[in-house]
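Contributing new records

If you add data, match the layout below exactly. Sequence lines come first and carry their own label; structure lines follow with theirs. Keep one chain per record. Anything else will be rejected by the validation script.
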Amino acid sequence: MVNSIMRYAVFLSTVFLVVQSPLVSALSADQKNVFDSGINYFDVSSGDGGSLCSNDLTVSSSKLSSSELSKLQQNEPTYQQAAQKTNVPWQLLAAVHYRETDFSTTEPNLFQITGYSGPSDFLSQAIAAGNFLQNHSVPGNLPNHRSPLQQSGTEPEEIKDTLYSYNGRASAYADQAAQLGFNKKTQPYEGSPYVMNDFDAIHTNMGIITGQSGPSTIDGVDTRLGAFTVYAYLLGVSGESVCGTGSGSGNIPQGNSQQLSQDILNSSKITFDFGPNGYVGQPFKDLAAGKLASNNEGCPATKVSTHILQAILLLAQNHKVNISSLTTGHPCGDVHTVGRAVDINILDNKHLGTGTTTNQTSLYNVPLSNSLMSDVLPALPDGSGFGDCDGHQIPTPGKNNISFFPDICNHVHAQVPPGA
């Protein structure tokens, strides 16, 4: 890990320093009272929402300066020791430390823990921060994110929520999450710059509460990396997943169509309308057997783009996926029957929608659609396209000529261009 960081330090030695925005303390006295009273800001008993996940860490890696990486290398043994004592990921301690005091080891409250009056040495403060995360932040999370933190394997959404609690769970940031297309009740942390700033194209230049206009008014633009952004970057350097505990680490699955189709059939996270032996699953069985993919419309059997198969497997690394069409259910000559498209109607046991025509947005789960499109995009080539309820667009970093168009409001359609 140290060698990896040093390689990044050399690579980034010419990169500019991040402009510092005001440091934000972990918890105000009032916010701590809220947590101590066991009161939660958000009720997750209603509302849906997907979980956007991105492996686009180019922003974070380009803005961690060589000086910051050098501090990180020096501090890492202490983070590791504190992680052993508190069972939190060392990368999480490093991310909080960056956000609070920019890796300083000389201040009396290095992790900005409200009311801290313990020993001043770095290790003691790092242990105190780990204990605070476990004993104060996690209990303040949404009910489904209150499992004790582990040094590895903690779900990314719980890490985000824990950081949101550490910073005070400002309701203004939940509102900002909604403005970005997330569900403010189930994903309020997505609107927090302390957590997410510069994680991906959706989370750049996020609004921040500076305190100059009051304790709950967003009145500035954050120019520092979010804590989860740093955490995810460090996890990526370590070779771990930044997007979940699926079968992969965010890398695009490799193989020919036969191998990829067999992987799809073997996956416990991929299901099909009418089951694996029904007509939706049959094309995958054909491909896994080394044959062309059949359909139920009497059209010629066809090859299927490996990009489509890779997209399905990439999505299943972090989600449960149900496929409603690969080559079936469409007329001959359609992009489906020539092996260039897939329809997905259920993600993580949630239906994308119940509409029967286009533009029935009241019957459609837009955040879930955004999540799906964002997660499969890395596997699709330039010139690909998405169809969903209203044809709305999402950011497409690193891709060219991605099209968006309306489709029936009960699924997301992904397609690749001819020849892909």
